[in-house]
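Notebook p. 47: complex prediction with magnesium ion.
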Amino acid sequence: MRHDFAGHGASRGLALGRARVRLPHALEMAEQRVPAAQADAEAQRLHDALEAARAEMRALREKLQGALSKEAFEFIDLHALLLDDPELVQALETLVRQERYSAGYALRVQRDRLAAVFEQMDDPYLRSRLDDLDHIIGRINAHLQRREPLPRGTAGEVLVCDNVAPSELAQLQAQGVVAIVSAAGSPLSHSAILARSLHLPLVVGAAEALARINDGDVVMVDGETGEVVVDPDAADLRRYQQREQQDARARRDLERLRSKPTRTRDGVDIALYANAESREDVARAHALGAAGVGLYRTEFLFLQRNELPDEDEQFQVYRDAVLGMSGRPVTFRTLDLGADKADRTGLSLANEDNPALGVRGVRLSLLYDQVFDTQLRAIARAAAYGPVRVLVPMVSCREEVLLVRRRLRRAVAAVKRRGVVVVTPPLGAMIEVPAAAIGVHGLVDAVDFMSIGTNDLVQYLLAVDRNNDALGDLYSPLHPGVLRLLAHVIGAGAQSGTPVAVCGEMAGDTRLAPLLLAIGLREFSLHPASLLELRRAIRECRLDSLRERAGKLLQARDRSAIERWLQEAVSR
Ligand code: PEP
Ligand code: MG
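Predicted complex, C-alpha cells below:
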C-alpha cells in the first residue's frame, strides 16, 4: 500500500526503483517461536549463519593482509574468537532447541544477556567490548536475514540502509543502484558530496526508512526534497513524469548560460571554479566554462583499495585533469584522508578515538613522508602539461605551510632532474581550522592563495559534527560567528593581495550567493552540477548595493536576522 515519508535531500535527482534493504547491525527482533518439528531446521539455519560469518571474517582477514594496522587486525581476530565462543554458540543452540526460539530471536536474547554482563564490568575497556559483541551479532543476523538477491538487470535498485560510506558509492552505482535512502547521515558528509558528484540521488536522515521499506518494494525517491514514496500510485507516477519534464526544461534554460560570463548586474566579474573528484567532473567543468578546477579532491584515488596508487598512476590521473581543462588552472588538494574518509585505503591508519581531530589532511601527509613525496612528484610532473596549483588541507599553523613548501620545491627539483621542464606550482592553504582562520594574518605571506573549506570550518567552529544528523539545524553556515570569521579571512586576503575562494558546499548554495558577495568574496569553487545555477544567481545580484548592506549583515545577532537579510537582498 502506498505510503510516504521524508528525510533530508542530500543529492538531487529523481529515481524510481526497487528497494534493496541492507539491515543495520543493531538488532530489533520481536519474540518468535518455531514449532517443535522445525527446531532442527532452525538450529541448522543458525549454524549456517555462524559458519557464513566465520568464513566472511577469514576472507576479510586475507583480503586486508598488509593493508590494515595492527589494531585493526586485533579487532578482526577478536571478532573471529567471539564467533567461536561457547558462551555464545552453545547458548544460542539451547535457546533454539529447548526454548524453540527462532534463530533471530535467540540472537537477541543472548545478546541482551551478555550485554547485561558487559555493562556491569568496572573496567571501561571491557565494558566497551559490547560494541564488538554487537558487531558480531549484527554479522550473524545479516546472514540469517539474507534472502534471495533481487534479479539483476530488471530494474534499478534503491539501496535502503542505515548509513553509507563514501568508499562504497561508486561501486554501488556500478551495480545498478539508482538512488540511496539512509536512515542516518547528513547532507554535509563526504558521502553526500560524493553522491552529488556521481549524480546519484541520496536522501539522508530518513529515520523511518528501514522500518517502512521492504526488500523489493517499488520506491520513488526525490533527492532534492528528501521525499520517499513507497509503492507509488498512478498520481505519484504522473507527478514523477511531470517533474522529469520540468527538470529537463529547467536544464535547457540553464544551458543558455553556458557561454555567458559570470558578471553581476553592475558589471563585476566573479570567478567560478569547479570542485572535482573524477575525470567526468573535469569534463563537465570544462564544458560549463569554469575558470578552472578550484578543488580536486585527490583522496578519492586512494579510497576503496588495498594498495597505494604509485607515482605513475597518480601522474596519469592528474595529467589528464590538467589536459581536460585546456590551459585553465587545476588546483590539486593533497591527500585529505582521515575522519570519515578512512574506511578503506592503501594506508595502515591507526584507529583514533577522535578522528576528526586526529591524523588527517596535512598532518597525515607530513607523517607519511614517502606517500606525500610521491604525490607531490606526481603533481609536479602533471604541471608540465598546464597550470597547476597545490592546495593543502587541514592547515592549522604557518609551520605546516612552510614545511610543505620545502617538500614541494624538493619534489619539483627531483622531477626537473629527470629532464621535465616545470615551474614550482603556486601553493595554497585550505582555511578550515578555526585557528588558521583567526590567525590568517600569519599565513597570508606564506601562501600564494587560500581556499575556505566551510564544511569543516563550520563543524570545528560550532563544535558540531558535520556527519551527525542528530544535531540537525545546529550545523549551519548562517551563524553570525561563521559569517564574521569568513569576512575576516576574505578581508585579510584582500588586504594582502592573496586570492581567497570558498570551496565548501556553502559556495554551491545559490541562495547564499548574495551573502558571500556582500562580505567580499570574488571566487567560488563548487560542484559543476550547480555551476550554471550559481552563475544565474550572481547575474541577478548588484554588488554595489550588497556591499552597502554588508555592515548590517555582519551585525546580525542570530540566524533569523541573517535569513531576513537574505530575503531582503533578493527582493530588492
Ligand atoms: C571543506 O571542508 O569545506 C572542504 C571543501 O573539504 P572536504 O569537504 O573535502 O573536507
Ligand atoms: Mg575539509
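Notes: The domain at 266-571 is CATH 3.20.20.60 (TIM Barrel). Residues 393, 432, 453, 455-456 surround magnesium ion (ligand 2) (CB under 6 Å).
Next step: compare against the earlier run before touching the bench.
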